[in-house]
Write a structure and sequence with these properties.
Blueprint lengths: L6 E5 L10 H9 L6 E5 L6 H14 L4 E5 L10 H4 L7 E4 L4 H8 L3 H11 L3 E5 L1 H4 L4 E6 L10 E5 L7 E5 L7 H10 L4 E5 L3 E6 L2 E6 L2 E6 L23 E6 L2 E4 L4 E4 L1 H10 L3
Parallel strand pairs: 1-5, 2-3, 2-4, 4-5, 8-9
Antiparallel strand pairs: 1-10, 6-7, 9-12, 10-11, 11-14, 12-13, 14-15
């Protein structure tokens, strides 16, 4: 799914669904505002009907023209032409939370997987929250201990959907103390940027950069210039040694260039853009 031209809205989970709904309102805006045709994919959750109904109600209230819900519970459904045919009709795709491994195991390599990639390449907005955020990258975190010291075996990785490359995304980041496991992921893949997204916070990825929106912060771990590490020498339970890992903490109004790996502040422009989408 490389060579993308669409935009991603990658959400750290527990996004506001009742008040200002800054993040979900942005999803609707990017998908066409009052002409938005959203398709909610509930493959990650074990409660697809309840979760799908919640997002249908919220997106409809925020002004989307159409909101459909697609539940994929087995790989045969992901090959069904009638179900896959819903994707080209959508201007925005939204992955709910749940279990990211359910998404990749049900969708990976199927006709639906390829339809999603084609939609993204032609400019369709793809958003995801919690598990739906983790699955966006080529490498995704599927398990790991939160709120513990960094350890070599403190994280489990698998292949994601590959909508964005050279990053690994973690969600519920500050709330669940996931710095240690993101450090372990970066130690194993030093060129891959670690992006930890707090709850009710998101990054909007537009080509080679992303912008932060929402209530809290995004942590970016850059291990490209790690001076030394013991990741290949100690046991999985062994304490992780890392030197010269770069850390950026970015709230709303800040952006990050994924190519130069540099953050910048453009609060006035960012807040102005969000305000325009608030009607």
């Amino acid at each position: 799914m490389a060579n993308n031209i669409g935009r991603l809205v990658i959400i750290g989970g527990a996004e506001d669904k009742e008040d200002d709904c800054v993040i979900l309102r942005e999803v609707v805006k990017l998908a066409g505002a009052r002409e938005a045709r959203l398709l909610v994919l509930t493959a990650a959750t074990s409660q697809p009907q309840q979760v799908g109904a919640v997002y249908r109600q919220v997106f409809t209230r925020l002004g989307a023209a159409e909101v459909g819900v697609l539940d994929i519970s087995d790989r045969l459904q992901a090959e069904d032409p009638l179900l896959v045919g819903l994707v080209p009709e959508a201007s925005g795709i939204f992955f709910t939370g749940g279990d990211q491994l359910r998404i990749t195991s049900l969708i990976g390599g199927t006709a639906l997987f390829h339809a999603l990639g084609a939609a993204y390449r032609r400019g369709v907005v793809i958003a995801g929250t919690s598990a739906g955020a983790s699955v966006m990258s080529s490498t995704m975190i599927i398990d790991g201990s939160g709120d513990q010291e960094p350890a070599v075996g403190g994280v489990r990785l698998a292949a994601g959907l590959g909508l964005i490359s050279d990053v690994v995304v973690d969600q519920h980041f500050a709330q669940r103390g996931r710095l240690g496991r993101l450090l372990a992921a970066v130690a194993q893949n030093p060129y891959v940027l670690g992006i930890g997204i707090d709850e009710n916070t998101a990054i909007v990825v537009d080509g080679p950069h992303f912008e932060v929106i929402g209530a809290a912060t995004v942590s970016v771990l850059d291990g490209q210039h790690i001076a030394f590490t013991n990741v290949s020498e100690v046991s999985p339970q062994g304490a992780l040694a890392l030197a010269e890992v770069r850390l950026h903490i970015l709230p709303q109004g800040y952006a990050f260039d994924l190519q130069t790996r540099q953050p910048w502040s453009d609060a006035a422009t960012a807040n102005s853009r969000i305000a325009k989408g608030g009607s």
